């Protein structure tokens, strides 16, 4: 291995590893990792429901459901069957000048489930790109109306909307690494979320001051996920909806994390009784099996693109747009929300997490314990060595990934009670 490469996994000697491992390791570039010092990740071999089996035979209970995606657990037979069937008839076909049943069926089903007149679906292949499309839609909505100056977004501290250049520029300035990329990022207006009197006043001031240059307000509803699982009340969303209306600014809700039941309702915006102008969906859209995302617009947004001027068309089209395998997968995932009691399971998980994590509150160094839907969070004063903490969890047989200053659970909705107990017991034990 080269000098500037990750160190081998603890407890395994390289000579005992298969050739694909020793040959591949020097060529892999890991996410969010300093490659000079990063230790090699675990090697997964198989998954089943809420468990991951490693190549060395160890089995871990997954507490994060593959970055918040695998809401039905891994390898659900209904999803597997749908994907296998689609694989036989048509794995992929271009979406330019052509379309297909899995995409049309998925689009109409999503629009039926979504509130209000969110009724036009634009498919992409990742969450970040679906947010970029939402931003382009909002900007072009203005341009098509002849308003050329309204190209900025108002975004919030603690927010996360993706890792591409355009989405980084609407993330929290510190966590979004704005200082690292500096002038490569677009400049937007960053406000505190209106959660109390003072922050609401600041937000309304910023909005009034910048409305003439704003295309949209963008936020994650109810939970800022990657920002540290920060919760806010439905009232905050109602404040945003009203302020957006008052200033004729569009409201984009990024439900990539919160969509599909995670917060207790199918979509988080339902809890505030509001309808965004544009919504983005991804993560659990395919039940965590394939990459797919959707940007859904309300009728009035879509209508601003209807014109005799060809330049008024939305100019975007990913190569793998509406991939039929991914659409079949998403349709199968929606079937499961209809045929199995997912929202009830989320409620049960919430009751369990609320009770089982409560004892952590009195542990030294614990700042807060909170739950919402199938999300459980133990916030610490500070995590000194997240790597060591992860290793402790692995030793307990659980896959829990602390970040920033939190230890959290976002399990599959299908998780068995004993597996959930294993996760909460591990958190209590390790934090003790
Ligand atoms: C994960 C996430 C994204 C980015 O999605 P990718 O598929 O990783 O590009 C955007 N917004 C939110 C709220 C997310 O949780």
Task: Tell me what the structure shows.
By secondary structure, the protein is α/β, with parallel strands linked by helices. 35% of the residues lie in helices and 17% in strands. It has a seven-stranded mixed sheet, sandwiched between helices. A four-stranded mixed sheet has the order 1-2-3-15. It is globular. The chain starts with 18 loop residues before the first helix and ends with a helix. The model has no long low-confidence stretch (mean pLDDT 95). The structure holds pyridoxal-5'-phosphate.
Précis, in short:
This protein is of the alpha/beta class. It contains 14 helices and 16 strands. The chain has helices spanning 19-24, 65-68, 77-89, 101-113, 127-144, 165-168, 178-181, 197-210, 234-246, 299-303, 324-339, 342-357, 386-395, 417-431, and strands at 44-48, 51-54, 59-62, 118-124, 152-156, 189-191, 214-219, 223-224, 230-231, 250-254, 278-281, 293-298, 366-372, 375-380, 398-399, 406-409.
């Amino acid at each position: 291995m080269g000098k500037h490469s990750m160190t081998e996994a603890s407890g395994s000697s390289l000579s005992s590893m298969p050739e694909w491992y020793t040959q591949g390791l020097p060529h892999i570039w890991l996410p969010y990792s300093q490659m000079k010092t990063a230790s090699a990740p675990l090697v997964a071999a198989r998954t089943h429901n809420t468990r991951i089996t490693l190549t060395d035979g160890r089995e871990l209970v997954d507490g994060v459901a593959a970055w918040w995606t695998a809401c039905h657990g891994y390898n659900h037979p209904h999803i597997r069957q749908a994907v296998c069937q689609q694989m036989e008839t048509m794995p992929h076909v271009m979406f330019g000048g052509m379309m297909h049943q899995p995409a049309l069926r998925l689009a109409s089903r999503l629009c039926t489930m979504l509130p209000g007149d969110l009724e036009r679906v634009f498919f992409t292949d990742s969450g970040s790109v679906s947010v970029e499309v939402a931003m382009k839609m909002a900007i072009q909505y203005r341009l098509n109306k002849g308003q050329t100056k309204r190209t900025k977004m108002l975004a919030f501290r603690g927010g996360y909307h993706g890792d591409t250049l355009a989405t980084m520029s609407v993330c929290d300035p510190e966590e979004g690494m704005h200082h690292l990329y500096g002038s490569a990022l677009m400049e937007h207006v960053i406000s505190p979320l209106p959660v109390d009197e003072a922050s609401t006043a600041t937000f309304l001031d910023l909005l009034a001051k910048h409305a003439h240059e704003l295309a949209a307000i963008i936020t994650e509803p109810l939970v800022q996920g990657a920002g540290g699982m920060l919760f806010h009340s439905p009232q905050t969303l109602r404040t945003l909806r009203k302020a957006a209306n008052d200033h004729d600014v569009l409201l984009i809700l990024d439900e990539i994390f919160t969509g599909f039941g995670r917060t207790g309702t199918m979509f988080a915006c339902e809890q505030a009784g509001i309808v965004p102008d544009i919504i983005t969906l991804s993560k659990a859209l395919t039940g965590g099996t394939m990459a797919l995302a959707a940007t859904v617009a309300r009728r009035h947004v879509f209508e601003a693109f209807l014109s005799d001027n060809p330049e008024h068309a939305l100019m975007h089209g990913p190569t793998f747009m509406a991939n039929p395998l991914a659409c079949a997968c998403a349709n199968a995932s929606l079937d499961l929300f209809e045929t199995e009691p997912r929202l009830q399971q989320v409620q049960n998980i919430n009751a369990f997490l609320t009770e089982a994590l409560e004892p952590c509150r009195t542990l030294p160094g614990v700042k807060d314990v909170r739950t919402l839907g199938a999300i459980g969070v133990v916030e610490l004063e500070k995590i000194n060595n997240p790597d060591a903490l992860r290793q402790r969890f692995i030793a307990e047989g659980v896959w829990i990934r602390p970040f920033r200053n939190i230890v959290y659970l976002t399990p599959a909705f299908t998780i068995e009670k004993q597996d959930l107990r294993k996760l909460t017991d591990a958190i209590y034990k390790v934090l003790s």
